[in-house]
Every structure is written in structure tokens, then in C-alpha cells.
Amino acid sequence: MQVTLIRLAILLRLERKKTKVNNTVNTHIVAVANQKGGVGKTTTAINLATALVAINKTVLILDLDAQGNASTGLGISLDDRVSSTYDIIIGNADLSDVIKRTSVEGLYIAPATTDLSSADVDLVANDKRTMVLKNSIIELVKQETKFDYIIIDCPPALSLLTINAFVACESVLVPLQAEFFALEGLSQLMLTVREVRSTLNKNIKIQGIVLTMYDKRNNLSVQIEDDVRENLGKLVYETVIPRNVRLSEAPSFSLPALIYDHKCSGSVAYQKLAIEFLERENRS
């Protein structure tokens, strides 16, 4: 695994060329969100985080999805989730107490359990219900342990959990499946971001929209890409993530695809996405 990370780091550094590297520890908080499920949201969160770790960044993934796919995909068993992000949300634990190391050096996760499915109900009576996650992250950042990036894997819904993520983050990365209903619901997500910006988090922005599950042999995928780029312009990443069996296989081995098979087309695409992501971060 370590050899794979070294190779991956070399590839990323070669590709980045003129991109400046900021060695100052300044925590960037990114929410990966789409209220539609099955669009590659967790796959994007895991593999983007892995690419960042490969260039010596320390990354924390916050799993806010009750399915806990990011936690499972990084090898955190149910027995190891005695404390989870649910405990943070209801105030039973500090974020620092929930964080687990993963098998990838430099990559940490705050795991999720199915208890999160009731989080919206539990938060209703809390006067500060939209600020719970932000306050937890603020307390974590004050401590000695520093993360370069915190990536929040949001649930597939515009719920109170997602609103908490939007209030806590600086930017939102939106995976968008290249299919007929791709744009359905995207306008609502962007409207929600706008509302949060006007009321709860003036700094939030759309970091970018990345097309996932793309099949260049399928005319529909090409048409969807053209429509998305025409309507959303520079918000859309140049990189597209293809449909790829190896991306689907990796979680069953509790590994990011970038480590499971860094040469497959899906992993190569995520390497390119990471480069583009970093270039956008440096321009912001």
C-alpha cells in the first residue's frame, strides 16, 4: 500500500507542474453532496481524500450518511463504531473522540452508523440544530491535531444533516451522474446553498460539479455532458469519472480505488480530478 501511495504521489506531483503548494496548515472544509443517491458521492469523497493524502496532506472524512458506506469502504467495522457521528450530532461525544485511523496513512474518518437515520428528529428540539457540526469542527480545529482537509460525505437528501454540513463547510463538491435525470434536483441543491449563504454561512460556495458514471460510448452521456456544460459553464470540472468495474470492486476490499488499482481508468480520472481540485483551491 505504501508503495502505491508513493507512486500515486509522484504521478500527482508530475501532473501538477506549476501548481503552488501551500505548506501552511489551514483546514479546508468541503462537503460532497447530492440529494440523489447512487451518484458516486462516497466514491468521490474517499478517492479525492486519498489523492490529497498522497501529496502529504492530512485528511479527515466525516461520514454523515446513515448507510456508512465511507466507513465500510475504509475498513471500519461496525464493532469499531462504538462512537459515531451520530453521537456528535446529539451531543454525546466530541468529534476528537470519534475519529478513527484508517489503513491509509494520513487519512482519518469519523464513522457513521444507522442511528443517523433518526438525526433529523433528534435535532428538531435543538435551538442550534443547524450549527451542531460547525461547532464540533471548530472545537476540533482548536486542538493540536491539525487536518489540511475535512471532507464531509453528506447523506442523499437535503436534510438537517446536509444543512449542518453546508453551514460548516467552505465549499460544496457535487458529483452528478451522467444520466437522463442528472439535472433533476440540482437546481434545488444550488438554491439551498444560496439560502445557506444568505442566512447561515456567507462563505459557502459551489466548489465544482463533477460528472460521474460517464460512458463515452453512450450518446446519452455525451448529450448530458453538453447540456450540463452549457448550463453551468466553468462550475463543471473538465475531468469526468467513467463507469469502471474497479471503482465498484474497491470498497469490498476496504480500500480506496486509488490504492486498489491506481492504473484503472476510474483511478486515473480521480487523480486528474484531484489535480483540478487543487488548482481550483489555489485560485480561490
Describe this structure in words.
With 284 residues, this protein is of the alpha/beta class. It has a single domain (24-283), classed as P-loop containing nucleotide triphosphate hydrolases (Rossmann fold, 3-Layer(aba) Sandwich), CATH 3.40.50.300. It is 44% helix and 13% strand. The two termini are 33 Å apart.
Short descriptors:
single chain, 284 residues, alpha/beta, Rossmann fold, seven-stranded mixed beta sheet, globular
Strand content: 5-15%
* Major pleated sheet: 7 strands, mixed
Helix content: 40-55%
Order of helices and strands: HEHEHHHEEHHEHEHEHHHH
Identify the CATH class. Answer: Alpha Beta
Mean pLDDT: 89
Strand element count: 7
Poorly predicted ranges: none
Q: What would you report as the Rg, rounded to the nearest angstrom?
A: 18 Å
CATH architecture, by name, is 3-Layer(aba) Sandwich
Number of helical regions: 13
Structural class: alpha/beta
CATH topology: Rossmann fold
Q: Supply the CATH superfamily name.
A: P-loop containing nucleotide triphosphate hydrolases
Total discrete domains:
1
Strand order, main sheet: write it out: 3-4-2-5-1-6-7
Q: State the end-to-end distance.
A: 33 Å
Shape field: globular
In short:
With 284 residues, the chain is of the alpha/beta class. It has helices spanning 2-16, 41-54, 69-73, 85-89, 95-98, 119-123, 132-142, 160-168, 186-199, 219-232, 245-249, 257-260, 265-283, and strands at residues 28-32, 59-63, 100-101, 107-110, 149-153, 171-177, 205-212.
